[in-house]
Amino acid sequence: MSSDTPSPSASVVSPSPNSTSPPQPKITFPVSPIPPNPLGEGRYIRTAAALVIGDEILNGKTHDKNSHCFAQYCFENGVDLKRIEVIADNEDEIIEASRRLVDRYDFVITSGGIGPTHDDITYESLGKAFGQKLVYHEETLRRLNEATKYRKWTGDQTAEQLTARNRMALFPENAEVIYVAEDIWVPVVRLAGKLCIFPGIPSLFTKMLHSLTPFIPLPPKNERPLRIQIFTDRPESMIAPYLTSLQKRLKPHDIQVGSYPILFKGVFVSLIGRDLQHKNKDDPNAEGRVWLAEVAQEVEREIGGRIVSDEEVAAQKSGTISLETSNSACKKIEPESVKPSGEAQASASEEGGKAKF
């Protein structure tokens, strides 16, 4: 199991005016060095999948935000998200799904099931999936101890409670351990060069996902797709024939045309693609370029609509029965937004239900 082992640093954080507790140091940890490209030099992540683990997701107790966040992250970084699966806290299901997804896709993430309780079985199940026994990771234990040593309950824990807590540093023995942020002791654990294990708490998941960016081989910016949206107040049935014809024409250029009605308001038409070179059908030796912006202007004319921003799309959707959320759901969280408060990173209340670590 590989990781860096630098020492943490601390600075004193003053208590709030109403606090009676003494000042506690703000613990920070060095991040890991950038590892070699696990896919091979010059190769990039093209496809991805997400495996969300948790009974609380399937029984409706907790609303899953992480898959939506991951979908936005993949789109913004030019990665084609192929699959999102939600499974129970069940060893056999975790083993089967993780093996299958790693075999098919370049980048796979899991969310949830890495906390201190009996139903947190993600590390153990993934160890079995890839033929690795679990071992304590000493650097992670040290960071965990450092992050929690000032909490008032630390000295009162029984041996059984300490064993439960230390399960959060029990990893498959050949895993890569990547510390992605100075203010989080929890690492991203990577298996088979592809599968990255994340906690289930949405704020922590989001912060760690964005912080992982320098450590993974994402596509170059010039290969990332564009999305343009056009709004019309015409009914979907009126614009359907044109959109069908348009999709047929644009399919060879890998441009996707989507239609998303808003009840009693109108329709958003979405164009997703890249500005691509293409052959001129009248002159096979000549090349032209498909400009997505030009296609969007054509759509505006044909459906009597107008190009709108992502913010306007979110505003139009608010107050409807649509279950889609705003594009702000996966904003990058700044360091001060996620505090290194030990097991406070291991459990949280999200929308009335426990968000599993």
Automatic annotation (TrEMBL):
GO biological process, one term: flavin-containing compound metabolic process
Superkingdom assignment: Eukaryota
Pfam family, one: MoCF_biosynth
Residue ranges annotated for the MoaB/Mog domain, each copy included: 49-219
One Gene Ontology MF term: FAD diphosphatase activity
Region (Disordered): 1-33, 326-357
Biased composition (Low complexity): 1-19
Cited InterPro entries: MoaB/Mog-like_dom_sf, MoaB/Mog_dom
PANTHER family named among the record's database cross-references: MOLYBDOPTERIN BINDING DOMAIN PROTEIN (AFU_ORTHOLOGUE AFUA_5G11210)
Protein name: MoaB/Mog domain-containing protein
Species per Swiss-Prot/TrEMBL record: Gymnopilus dilepis
